[in-house]
Amino acid sequence: MKSDFIMQPPHPETEWSSCTGYSESAVLIERILDVSLKDASICTGPDDMYYMTGTTDGSSLQVWTSADLQSWTGPAEVWSLEQEGTWQKESGGSSGICAPEIHYVKGTFWITYGLSQGGTGLLQSFSDSVMGPYQDMGKITADGQDASLFEDEDGAVYWIYSNGKIAKMNRDMTGLEETPRMVEVQPWKVAGREDHPSYIGNLQVGSYGAFLYKRDGYYYMFCADALKRMGSDAVDTFVAVSQSIYGPYSRRYLALPHGGQISLFSGPDNQLYASFTGCGSYSLVEHYPSIVPMSFGGPGFIRPIEGAVLEKGAVGSLKPVADFLIRDPHISTGPDETYYLTGTSDKPHRNFWDRNNQLHLWSSIDLKEWNHVAKVWDLSENGTWENNIYENPCLWAPEMIYLYGTFWITYSLQGGGTGMIKSISGHAEGPYIDMGRMTNTDIDSSLFQDEDGQVYFVWQDGKIAKMKKDMTGFAEDPCKLLSSDGQRVGYEGAFIVKYKGKYILGAAEWNGDKRVDGTYDLMYAVADDLYGPYTPRRLAVPHGGHGTMFIDHNGNLMSTFFGNDRTAPFRTRVGIVLLQAEEDGAGLCIAPCCE
User: What φ, ψ does residue 82 adopt, rounded to 5°?
Assistant: First the structure.
């Protein structure tokens, strides 16, 4: 395996390794048929027509036809379980056809299928037509479901089914000539990253819906699996890759968000498409069939084309408000109601982890147009204690607040430790003086001023301490704010904002895989008192990660956003999400507002 992405994935925030790609002309995917259908499968016929089937009521196999992938006719019933079924009805339990697929192999059409009680079968068209009539080729396997066919370049045909099982078929296509074997993915672990199969000890591509595709010498084994990205009910499509049909296969990676069980086929102009039924409440086409053009980002690396919006809600179609690179963005308001933005900058080395020792500031009067104010701090020029700890210190996650007639900025260092600077002019652009080291370890520091004027230092995963009046240090021993169930709100990026009389504690958390295929989400908990108790944490902004909430001039609750996972709408650009906050049975419910 030669692909760097396959063997050693980069940090998921890099655009070249992303699953979703940003485009100014992005469009939302749409259902191609206004019929609820599971396990949608599409095949290209020799007549340049497209044929689709999927799970309906389990009593028959139905087919839809299209010449352009937009207008579909049907359904036409091509096989009936009640009228034509044989062995399929032998089971004492309830029987039903599920996950059928259409394939054009060896000069005719075939339909693979599974039974709801287990077992897989095959039908062959007697004619050149997808409409049949069909010959029952019998039971192919007594176990599993989600059957599929794959014809290799040498003419050999393979039975693919369930969670990645594979076996070569005999020449007359009446059964298997070998015992099925399971495709196993390669687990891997890198410090700070966790891949789902490796940390649960499960080496399979996914749970169901196996489908095999080959291109440029690479075999792509697809399966569906529930990852709990965004803490949701999404079922995603994963893939593992090999240069040999039996393996060894690579690590798995997420190829199609919310895709579930898919099939791949060639469309107009030989464009590769994935057909699928939207899986999960975040899918734009939940329970309905759709297609997405697919692309290749490198050897063995398949993903949707740029500009295909796959996720519903305000975040799914979010666009950046500025084009400069930034991480951990923070927005606050000055005394003249100007908005100020700061965050982890990639200057001067255009690498967030390589001596990015500068702290930059931008301003806006409307949250839309942003102007660079100044470089207000540079560790190589202004740093003191930082340079005694690290040879090439990196400055991370600065946050600004206006207190006591001037501006204050907290910041973190790569490797741990937090500091604070103060503007001695009363202006946002400074100049600033060093207020010293606030914590010896940890990162992601923030300041919160309560309505009584008291200021608090908040950092890492919900740690908090009251500040001295002169802001030179803590006035009390730190403690950690936890939810009522004992869980932390997130593992980094903690902040506090007060809204509608409630204290909102926010922080970033990886849901699903950590720094691989999961989502870097903004979580929150709410309390009536600053020190709690806080409600159990909930998701505020999917993909929001280390954003921070703020209140705009109109009293709206907002959140910053920068994208830090493979399925975010964009990466390392600043976005702004309007939030709605309403009481429900569990307290204050915060979610992106779609209006």
Answer: -70, -45
Six token digits for residue 274: 């994935």
Residue 227 in contact with residue 196, Cβ under 8 Å?
Answer: yes
Rounded to whole angstroms, the Cα distance separating 359 from 345 reads 7
Segments of the chain scoring below 50 in pLDDT? none
pLDDT of residue 2: 64
- Residue 515: the pLDDT is 85
CA–CA separation, 513 vs 195, rounded Å?
Answer: 5
For residue 91, the model assigns a pLDDT of 66
Give, in order, the Cα–Cα distances in Å from 340 to each of 324, 402, 522. 15, 10, 21
* 235 close to 242: Cβ distance less than 8 angstroms: no
Angstrom distance (rounded) from CA 324 to CA 345: 9
* Phi then psi dihedrals of residue 381, to 5 deg: -105, -35
In contact, 22 and 569? CB cutoff 8 Å: yes
Cα–Cα distance, 239 to 215 (Å, whole number): 14
According to DSSP, the residues that pair with 581 across neighbouring strands are 590
Question: Is the separation of the CB atoms in 397 and 411 below 8 Å?
Answer: yes
* pTM for the predicted model, two decimal places: 0.95
| Sheet with strand 326-333: strands edge to edge | 326-333, 339-345, 358-364, 371-378
CA distances from 315 to 6, 262, 330, 355, 542 (A): 28, 25, 18, 31, 7
Q: Kindly report whether the peptide bond that precedes residue 533 is cis, defined as omega within 30 degrees of 0.
A: yes
**What's the CA gap between 118 and 141, in Å, rounded?**
9
561 forms beta bridges with 575
List beta partners, residue 528.
Answer: none
**d(C-alpha 328, C-alpha 563), whole Å:** 9
Q: Cα(452)–Cα(526) distance, rounded to whole angstroms?
A: 19
| ∠ CA 545-294-122, rounded to 5° | 115
What is the separation, in whole angstroms, between the first and last Cα of the chain?
46
CA 486 to chain centre: 27
- d(C-alpha 579, C-alpha 19), whole Å: 26
Cβ neighbour number for residue 137 with a 10 Å cutoff: 18
Q: CB neighbours (10 Å) of residue 440? A: 9
How far apart are alpha carbons 405 and 416 in whole angstroms? 30
Inter-residue contact 210 to 151 (CB < 8 Å): no
pLDDT for 554 equals 96
- CA 178 from centroid of its chain's CA atoms: 38
550 contacts 340 by C-beta, under 8 angstroms: no
User: What pLDDT, on a 0 to 100 scale, did the predictor assign at position 1?
Assistant: 57
Location of structure tokens 């498409």: 273
Residue 572 CA to its chain's centroid (Å): 15
Helix, strand and coil in the chain, % to nearest 5: 5, 45, 45
Alpha carbons 362 and 343: distance in angstroms, whole number: 10
Q: How far apart are CA 363 and CA 370, in angstroms?
A: 5
Per the rule left: phi > 0, alpha: psi between -120 and 50, beta: everything else, 164 is: left
Q: Could you tell me where the beta strands, DSSP code E, fall in 500-545?
A: 502-511, 519-527, 538-541
Residue type present at position 105: V
Report the length, in residues, of the chain: 595
How far apart are alpha carbons 203 and 200 in whole angstroms? 9
